[in-house]
Amino acid sequence: MKRKIVVSGRGEVRSRPDTMTARVGVSLVRDTVAAATQEAADLGTQLVSALRAGGIVEDDIQTADYSIHPEYEHTPHRQRFVGYRVTNTLVVKIRELDQAGSILDAVSGVAGDEVTIAGVGFAIDDDAELVVAARERAWDDAVAKAGQLADLAGLELGKATLIEETVAEAGHPMSRAFAMDEAAVYQATPIEPGSQSLTINLRVAFELA
To answer: What is the b/e burial string over 189-205, where b = at least 16 CB atoms within 10 angstroms of the residue's CB?
Structure first.
């Protein structure tokens, strides 16, 4: 049986995200189901129109949640019926990050006090070049470790007989609430994507001679 050595290699690269996703929508309470659903539908239509006007294509807008339920106000001694809450939430992908603040402000302007914006997160949509770079670094790391261990053992490093790979992306999810105020008319909400890491881990088995 041939002798072998198994090592792990790690390669990490960082880059600025090129897309942002956010859960946007409307949530409102009205006296009747009919009134709540109708107003939510009107606001939802206006919200989608605002997104499309901001350059968001149809494929990047997806319904994530739609719900209707009675809402009550609870006190120590009783509960009071308030009305029916309708929530309509969309997941939106924004590919032009320099326009993200303006798009979110437009959504807030359409829905007003009924707007919901949360679950803001960033991603690297086109990561092919990053994967290649991280994989090369992981391989170099694995070979360096294996070579050092072989030297310490007085052996010669042979060919790789097993390679296993895992990929990990570290995102920056956020949960924020946005509100329209007078200042928003003059300046878009600032959006800072920061940077994001992509890591590849290799498990490599080498023959030893």
So the answer is: bebebeebbbbbbbebb
For residue 93, give its domain range. Answer: 19-123
The sheet carrying 196-208 orders its strands as: 4-15, 196-208, 157-170
The helices-and-strands tally (H runs, E runs) of the chain is 3, 7
CB 164 within 8 A of CB 49: no
The DSSP symbol for 60 reads G
- CATH, residue 101: 3.30.70.2970
Do you know the residue count of the chain?
209
Is the pLDDT reported for residue 175 higher than 80? no
Q: Chain-wide mean pLDDT for the chain?
A: 88
Q: Is residue 189 part of a domain?
A: no
Count structural domains, the chain.
2
pTM, two decimals, is 0.69
Q: Give the containing element (helix H, strand E) for 148.
A: helix 128-152
Q: Say yes or no: 101 and 154 in one domain.
A: no
Count how many Cα atoms sit within 13 Å of the Cα of residue 105 in the half-sphere of its side chain: 16
pLDDT (tens digit per residue) in 136-167: 999 999 999 999 999 999 999 999 999 999 98
37, part of any domain: yes
**Domain limit, last residue, from 123, 149, 176:** 123
